[in-house]
Backbone:
């Protein structure tokens, strides 16, 4: 069975109102290394800190889902801040406008998958 994965880890956010973290980037990098070292033929994207913008993360997840075959396993790892209403805060999130497009709601990935089924 083939495995495809997206690893996202954000310690530093562009908005200074969002506190920095100290282990999210490291966790995503460590999991990426573990997966790539142990799963032969793994197709994986890794986005950390300033790379993990709304656009890049959305493109990585959607691209991974679009390329997936029925018998493939998809793994999506996110390490970073979230909001009380289920949003994943990405590196370009504006803390004063959490309703904008620069964050992902938990349903977004499910919505992406539903569009493909």
Residues:
């Amino acid at each position: 069975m083939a495995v495809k994965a997206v690893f996202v880890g954000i310690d530093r956010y562009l908005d200074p109102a969002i506190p920095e973290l100290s282990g999210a980037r490291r966790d995503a990098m460590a999991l990426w290394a573990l997966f790539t070292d142990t799963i032969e033929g793994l197709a994986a994207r890794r986005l950390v800190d300033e790379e993990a913008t709304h656009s890049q993360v959305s493109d990585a997840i959607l691209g991974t889902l679009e390329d997936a075959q029925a018998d493939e396993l998809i793994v999506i790892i996110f390490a970073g801040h979230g909001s009380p209403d289920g949003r994943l805060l990405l590196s370009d999130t504006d803390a004063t406008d959490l309703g904008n497009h620069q964050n992902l709601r938990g349903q977004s990935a499910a919505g992406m998958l539903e569009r493909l089924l």
